[in-house]
Each structure stands twice: as C-alpha cells, then as structure tokens.
Amino acid sequence: MNATAGSMARSRAIVALILGYFVVLVYATIASDPLAAIVAELGFGVIAIAVGAMLYGQTANPRSVLAAAAGCLGAGGVLTFAAVLTRVAAIDLLSSFFVFLGVGCYVYAVWRSN
C-alpha cells in the first residue's frame, strides 16, 4: 500500500465514516430510534462500498484476492441498500455474507502478502 496524500485523505474519510457509523448505531440502540437504525444501515452500506472502492484502487491484478475482496465489499454495500429499501431478510443476509466474504478475502490477502 502506498501512502500518498490522496490515499491518506481517503483513509481518514473512511475512518470518519466508521466512527460516525458506530455513533449512530449506539444512539439507535440506546434510544430505540428506528430512523437512526436505518441511517446506520445505510452508513454501513456506504462504508462497505467505500472500502471496496479503495481496495480496488490498490490492486494491480483484477484477478487477485484483493480484487475479490473489493468486489465482495462493493456488492455487500449495494445489497445493504436493497435490503433497507425492500426489507427482505434474504437480501439482508446476502449482504452480510458478501461483506464477511470481502473481509475474509482481505484478511487472507494481507496474511498471504506477509
């Protein structure tokens, strides 16, 4: 991974999104606010897509495990939006599966590179 100014700004933005997500999630849980819960779910989708896009920008080979991680995270984020809009449990489960698969692929790619 290279530490250019653009990638540092993107990394900070993603960290800010993640922190914001957890703040909204904690509030939604404590206050039992359904609107805040929806905002947290949408934030989760945005984070998954943003991390997937960042990973895809860092891969040199489109057939690598890192590219698979990026694709899975992007798909999981898009499916999160679909789950929020439709409230279909199967879509929600599928979005979680893709996000977990993307995180697993990323962990494997990092483990394999060391």
Automatic annotation (TrEMBL):
The keyword Transmembrane applies. The keyword Transmembrane applies. The chain crosses the membrane at residues 12-30, 36-57, 64-85, 91-111. Keywords: Membrane, Transmembrane, Transmembrane helix. This is Uncharacterized protein. The lineage of its organism: Archaea, Methanobacteriati, Methanobacteriota, Stenosarchaea group, Halobacteria.
